[in-house]
Amino acid sequence: MGRRRYIATALAAATAVALLPGGAVAAKSTKAKKFRCSLELIAQGKPNPSLTHFGFPSCQAPLGKGLHQSTITVTPASPTSGSIAGRFKNYYNTGTLRGTVAMTFSATSPANITYTGTVTYTRGTGAFSHVKGNGTITCTTTDGGAHKSCVVNSKLTGV
Fold this sequence. Notes:
8 strands, mainly beta, eight-stranded antiparallel beta barrel
């Protein structure tokens, strides 16, 4: 009888820990949370047609500040417009987020370009291993695309 009581007590304790917020096995939220991030990007080279960006996302907790890397393909539609498709990975202190981006762009001059589109978060690691979601992205540049300032508004589950 003592062994059964010990097992029952151990199971009850493990269940209680799993149900506590922040517990080692706590379930991730299935309710979507809104996040707004700023993102400063630096282009590595000129698109021909592919290009790599590195940058610095800054988001509210629990994401926080991090490092961004993306590889995109640029498809011009005219001398002043076109589309962009690519993949990204954001590295944060407690995990990573990966996904895809699809944007269109239009230029009012060779230096001034506006980009708008969508992001889709497909998977994560660490604290963000359950994260999925999507959002919108808007970027502007005043130097022909070498440096971009972006705002990303997302709805994420599993955070």
